[in-house]
Amino acid sequence: QVQLVESGGGLVQAGGSLRLSCVASGRTFSTYTMAWFRQAPGKEREFVVRISASGSTAYADSLKGRFTISRDNAKNTINLQMNSLKPEDTAVYYCAARIGLRATVNNMDYWGKGTLVTVSA
Could you list the mean pLDDT of each consecutive 10-residue stretch along the chain, which spans 121 residues? Predict the structure, then answer.
C-alpha cells in the first residue's frame, strides 16, 4: 500500500508561481510512475503530467513550458513547479502512482487527497 500526501497549494495571483510536492510512503517509490492530475470546479479530473520510474516525462499539451515535474527517489517525493499561472489553472491538484508507464485518470493505483490551487485574476 502506498500513501500519498500533497502539499504546496494556495492562493496566487495570475502570472505567479507555485511548487507542489507529494510525499509517498513505502520502500518501492522508485519503481512507480508518478503523476499529477487536476480537477477544476465543475469539471472532470484531467491529466497534467507524469514521470516514470526511469525519469521520462510526459505533459498535457496545454501545459508544456509552464509546468515542470521532478522526482527525488531518496526522499520519496515528486514536485510540480508551476510558472506563469493562469486563472484557468485553478483546481485541486492530485498526486497519483501506479506500476506501469501510462498514466490516466482511470488506471492509477493510488491517489492522494489533493491540494487546492487558486489563481486570482
Answer: 96 98 92 97 97 96 93 96 97 96 93 98 95
CA dist 100 and 110 (Å) reads 12
Are 58 and 64 within 8 A, CB to CB?
A: no
- Residue given cell 510526459 in the structure block: 58
Give me Rg for the CA atoms of the chain.
13
pLDDT at 26: 80
Q: List the grid coordinates of 110.
A: 493510488
| Alpha-carbon gap, residue 29 to 53, rounded angstroms | 8
Q: Pull the grid cell for residue 6.
A: 500533497
Using an 8 Å Cβ cutoff, are 2 and 26 in contact? yes
Per-residue model confidence (pLDDT) at position 64 = 82
Instruction: Name the amino acid, one letter, at 110.
Output: Y
DSSP string for residues in 2-52: --EEEE--EEEETT--EEEEEEE-SS-GGGSEEEEEEE-TTS--EEEEEE-
Identify the pLDDT of residue 13.
98
